[in-house]
Fold these 4 entries.
Entry 1:
Amino acid sequence: MKRSKQGVTVRRCDCHDVPLECCPERLRGVIEAGASRVGLHVTGGVPMEVASLIDHTLLTPDATDHDIDTLCDEAAQYGFAAVCLNPTWVVRAHQRLGDTPINVCSVVGFPFGATPPEVKGYEAQRALGDGASEIDMVINVGALKSGDRRLVQRDIEAVVELCRHSDAQSKVIIETALLTDNEKRLACELAKAAKADFVKTSTGFGPGGATIADVSLMRAIVGDALGVKAAGGVRDYDTFKALTRAGATRIGASAGVKIVIEALGA
């Protein structure tokens, strides 16, 4: 099917009546053939209620400048909430995204959280100065499991307070797969007391990722005061739906494009 708009012919697929390059069946075939990323110039049809909840993520240590450019271009094309990347790429992402509404999210203390509060504070300050408008920080998991509540509180506050003064959003990664339910509860309570904007399940580099049970528990603890970000192992639209129904208000995923494509075909 073809439709003409302002003298430009737009080819549309017959199965879903969306622009041909957005056809879910066509794109699913590309992904199944082995593509991990699909760059598109989307002209319409993207479900913003899905895309706007996704932090498009690339945190692997071997990511290249080309990979980061692709990540940013996809985020702008699809309207993702943010790109989430390592601090070394913040300047490049900030410049690449320019005047788009896409936020740049930098991780801090990543992925183990085993650095002092002062170091995390400096790392956050540097990322914010480089152009980040969101910070995902990892708590000191070992201190939490040792019962050192005061250190964990200082750890969180060192980053959250900087974000607040910079009008940036803060997300506190608690690495749920390493914690008991009581430890998850305490971590969420400390993040809430520090007035963080979100609690986040996982780094994606731990022994497990986001689960429905953990998201539900975290939502029950923080109530409506904080957002809940689910990350780690979110690779398809069905998982996206299950986690948002459980209470997640942001999803961290490297498979953001695939999730949107599947949502288009749902």
Entry 2:
Amino acid sequence: MIKIALALGMEVLSYTLEAPPSGGGVTYVTLEELLQRSDYVTLHCPLTPETRHLINRDTIALMKSSAFVINTARGPLIDEAALIEALQAGRLAGAGLDVQEVEPPAEDNPLYDMENVILTPHMGWKGLETRQRLIHILAGNIKAYLAGSPINVVS
């Protein structure tokens, strides 16, 4: 994602709970600054008690009304009720969601009818490169098992 954004001439801001790496064309900022300055906020983090509802009424209030939220990570990172409210009120320009707070989502979920929302069925991980990597890992696991030294063993 970073490489694509940089290739498009975007300034890339990032927030992390861990010590940020140096370089790479990324500027590390606080979450508040990231939300206030960003035109596109993409989520790339695990779901933990600390990240649940990372995007909520309070954090949305910090964002530009012209901003877009993109979530291909975990649905509960976003408080969906707060997101819907903000989208309907014009406090956010739009959202792209590959995951939702509850899966499968309810048939009457308002996100289905919003012109400023793009939904995909939790398939963001299914790109060609990912599939090739999975096949490579699988082949390595089979070879190791047949050689008598299985890897990634779970007891």
Entry 3:
Amino acid sequence: MQIVTPRFGVLEIEENSLITFPDGLPGFDNCKRFKLLHEDVAEPKVLWMQSLDEPEVVISVIDANLLGLHYQLALSDAESALIQYTGGQDVILLLTLTRDGDGNKIQANTQSPIVLNAASRLALQKSGVRAEIVFTNE
């Protein structure tokens, strides 16, 4: 499938590489299908979720682990069913990123992570979550 985006131009996208939010995202209810994009580097830090339903919508995200954030989430039965999570599958937690009004600072939304079932490629955004911050000396 091909999509034309304002930010990335023409993209050729494989259907099986999409991430689907069955209920959409808060504030972007019509955006249900996304493609994760990243810079062409060995270990990209920031990813972009490009909407296929509204090509002008691009959301910057980062893996919570890269920020040293660890979550213990409890999904309701409805949430588990929504993303087809039955336990044992890999779940990736992504945080949305925004810039402040001046564009000088980037903030991560730590209280509403995106929960992505890597096996089913289905996701939801879970609100009101607390993260444990872990600092390590490496």
Entry 4:
Amino acid sequence: MSAYFNVKIDGQVVVTNILGQWSEQVALSFEKEMHRVVPNVSATRFAHLVSFDEWELSTPSVAPIVRRVAGWCVSQGMYVAAEVFSANVLKEYLINKATEEVKDHVTIRRFSSESDARKWLAEMGFETQTTQQLPT
């Protein structure tokens, strides 16, 4: 599977789907896309719904880029993040490393289903306009 991502806005929620094995080049493209999309959220605070279910990990050079994107998102108003993926110790470890610098500034919850993640986001005040599943 090739590496891929999809980023869109759904109300006050930035919805991201991460797929495949990420290289530094893919991570840099993702950073550029986030810098393009996030300023279009029509609120001072926003949520991030991200699916890692189809993510097949990444090269070590990706970690600092993802940390930089997470920090930038917090500086832009990211208030909560809902991460969706099935139990996977390695994914959890890598995601923890990528978010450790922002965890004191944003509420992050993990879910095994997108519907549970969307329910939690709604409870936090970030309802999505669509109930469809993230594209794969």
